[in-house]
Amino acid sequence: MRIVSLLPSATEIVCAIGLQDSLVGVTHECDYPPAVRGLPRVTKTLIPHDASSREIDALVRERLKTERALYTLDMPALEALRPDLLVTQALCDVCAVAEAEVTAAACSLPGGPRVINLEPMSLDQVFETLLLVGEATGQSAAAAVVVARLRERVRSVGERTASAPVERRPRVAFLEWLDPLFNGGHWNPALVQLAGGVDVLGSPGEPSRTTPWEALVSARPEVLFIACCGYSTERAAQDLPILEAQPGWRDLPCVRSGRVFVTDGNAYFSRPGPRLVDGLEIMAHALHPEVNPLPDGLLPAKQFTFPLY
Known about the structure:
Layout lengths: L2 E3 L2 H9 L6 E3 L17 E3 L7 H14 L4 E3 L1 H7 L3 E5 L9 H10 L5 E5 L4 H14 L3 H23 L8 E8 L2 E3 L4 H7 L3 E2 L13 H7 L3 E4 L6 H5 L2 H5 L8 H4 L3 E3 L2 H4 L7 H12 L14 E3 L5
Parallel strand pairs: 1-2, 1-5, 5-6, 7-9, 7-10, 10-11
Antiparallel strand pairs: 3-4, 7-8, 11-12
């Protein structure tokens, strides 16, 4: 089978269930596992590489008005790869190639490759997508093993955080964008709960949404956990001065206690794939390090402190 992945999480899923050798093409954003970086790229982005967070947000909003995605297919490259299977998504209107474009492409390609759409809104549904891809590729048994291992890691985190008294569960504001503010949606509120926190901005299974600064101030979070969509830790940290300039920043409990964390949202929270469980373990370590040791190979969320004068 010749598989082309049209989103990074699908690439990670295909590789996790043992089909890395069947991948013949990926998106311009696919970077994990590292070996996929050498595969042909079949998508292009319309986002300037040096765009600010505010500029990216404006571009996204403009595209939503016209129902056009921010990414397009490189049809000559796709045709040359002769795929049997295209794995894509219809979850986000702008973060991948538009569903209609993928469907049209599949109809025009020789052999009419099968198209699988992944649309998880929760952690359980992410696990179901692994099983779906496994079934479509003849790897059902391998996918079941991977999912069982992921569920066991989630269960272990839940058991450890359950040992913490309810009154020690911090109020957590999870942000997936800083300019403007967006709360973390979809699976992220559930990850906060599993990690031993109380999400004060998000609702499980609901999309992320623009969050007024006043809502964050009113929520008085004891922990601010920042995992910007598509950003590394370093890139997200560049936007922290935007928060510092806001009224009431220094009065937030999370700022006064030095519990502001930034991590790699691109790797561990934006992509609905196996590494969401890595993200859960990173968050659990940040919230309750006394009961949640960080697994080998994972970097802790970076903790920031700010002057209070």
